[in-house]
Amino acid sequence: MKNLYLIGFMGAGKSTIARALAKKCPSKRIEMDQLIEEQQGMAITDIFAAHGENYFRDLETELLRSFSESTGYVVSCGGGSVLRDENAALMKENGCIVFLRATPETIYERVKDSTNRPILNGNMNVEYIRELMEKRRPRYEAVADICVDTDGKDVDAISEEILKAVEDRS
Ligand SMILES: Nc1ncnc2c1ncn2[C@@H]1O[C@H](COP(=O)(O)OP(=O)(O)OP(=O)(O)O)[C@@H](O)[C@H]1O
Ligand SMILES: O=C(O)C1=C[C@@H](O)[C@@H](O)[C@H](O)C1
Ligand SMILES: [Mg+2]
């Protein structure tokens, strides 16, 4: 199996769906955010605060490079990782990119109580989420091989939809 790269806005369900997919098909799971936190020994919020966003984006590129030639991974990508051309190219090289879509209202409901998403810290409201999402959506859609709407669907239904779409492409 080629790698499956789950992309999308914060709270779109990348980590949740990656866990479900890893149970349904023989694959290894990579949580980009978590791996970076472990490698740096720091929370993402602290990495942003201490070194800035660009430094974090470099870490994402380095991590994607490190397994881009391996196969069989389901990768829960950092929400902004695909914004860099180099990162999108690394994902395309050896994998299928799945965009998990959700409305700003749904995203807000899913992330409103969290404090570990530095991009949203101090901006936790539907209007900000909508504004940033509108900036990013064209990019997510342009690089994706498969787009899945997640509003009102449970995790099992979304995972099955992804597996079917992947199979249809092969
Ligand atoms: N289809 C769904 N239906 C209902 N709740 C969901 C669904 N998918 C995810 N959630 C919930 O939304 C929250 C955010 O999900 P998750 O952490 O998987 O998003 P993410 O895309 O990995 O976010 P991040 O980019 O910040 O890592 C979690 O509490 C999760 O349980
Ligand atoms: O959308 C983003 O830019 C981010 C999403 C998270 O997954 C983390 O990678 C980080 O908080 C940045
Ligand atoms: Mg996640």
UniProtKB/TrEMBL annotation:
<comment type="subunit">
    <text>Monomer.</text>
</comment>
<comment type="similarity">
    <text>Belongs to the shikimate kinase family.</text>
</comment>
<keyword id="KW-0479">Metal-binding</keyword>
<dbReference type="InterPro" id="IPR031322">
    <property type="entry name" value="Shikimate/glucono_kinase"/>
</dbReference>
<keyword id="KW-0028">Amino-acid biosynthesis</keyword>
<feature type="binding site">
    <location>
        <position position="33"/>
    </location>
    <ligand>
        <name>substrate</name>
    </ligand>
</feature>
<comment type="function">
    <text>Catalyzes the specific phosphorylation of the 3-hydroxyl group of shikimic acid using ATP as a cosubstrate.</text>
</comment>
<keyword id="KW-0547">Nucleotide-binding</keyword>
<dbReference type="InterPro" id="IPR000623">
    <property type="entry name" value="Shikimate_kinase/TSH1"/>
</dbReference>
<keyword id="KW-0057">Aromatic amino acid biosynthesis</keyword>
<feature type="binding site">
    <location>
        <position position="15"/>
    </location>
    <ligand>
        <name>Mg(2+)</name>
    </ligand>
</feature>
<keyword id="KW-0808">Transferase</keyword>
<dbReference type="GO" id="GO:0004765">
    <property type="term" value="F:shikimate kinase activity"/>
</dbReference>
<dbReference type="GO" id="GO:0008652">
    <property type="term" value="P:amino acid biosynthetic process"/>
</dbReference>
<dbReference type="GO" id="GO:0000287">
    <property type="term" value="F:magnesium ion binding"/>
</dbReference>
<feature type="binding site">
    <location>
        <position position="79"/>
    </location>
    <ligand>
        <name>substrate</name>
    </ligand>
</feature>
<dbReference type="InterPro" id="IPR023000">
    <property type="entry name" value="Shikimate_kinase_CS"/>
</dbReference>
<dbReference type="GO" id="GO:0009073">
    <property type="term" value="P:aromatic amino acid family biosynthetic process"/>
</dbReference>
<feature type="binding site">
    <location>
        <position position="57"/>
    </location>
    <ligand>
        <name>substrate</name>
    </ligand>
</feature>
<feature type="binding site">
    <location>
        <position position="117"/>
    </location>
    <ligand>
        <name>ATP</name>
    </ligand>
</feature>
<keyword id="KW-0418">Kinase</keyword>
<dbReference type="InterPro" id="IPR027417">
    <property type="entry name" value="P-loop_NTPase"/>
</dbReference>
<keyword id="KW-0067">ATP-binding</keyword>
<feature type="binding site">
    <location>
        <position position="136"/>
    </location>
    <ligand>
        <name>substrate</name>
    </ligand>
</feature>
<dbReference type="Pfam" id="PF01202">
    <property type="entry name" value="SKI"/>
</dbReference>
<dbReference type="GO" id="GO:0005524">
    <property type="term" value="F:ATP binding"/>
</dbReference>
<protein>
    <recommendedName>
        <fullName>Shikimate kinase</fullName>
        <ecNumber>2.7.1.71</ecNumber>
    </recommendedName>
</protein>
<keyword id="KW-0460">Magnesium</keyword>
<dbReference type="GO" id="GO:0005829">
    <property type="term" value="C:cytosol"/>
</dbReference>
<comment type="pathway">
    <text>Metabolic intermediate biosynthesis; chorismate biosynthesis; chorismate from D-erythrose 4-phosphate and phosphoenolpyruvate: step 5/7.</text>
</comment>
<feature type="binding site">
    <location>
        <begin position="11"/>
        <end position="16"/>
    </location>
    <ligand>
        <name>ATP</name>
    </ligand>
</feature>
<keyword id="KW-0963">Cytoplasm</keyword>
<dbReference type="GO" id="GO:0009423">
    <property type="term" value="P:chorismate biosynthetic process"/>
</dbReference>
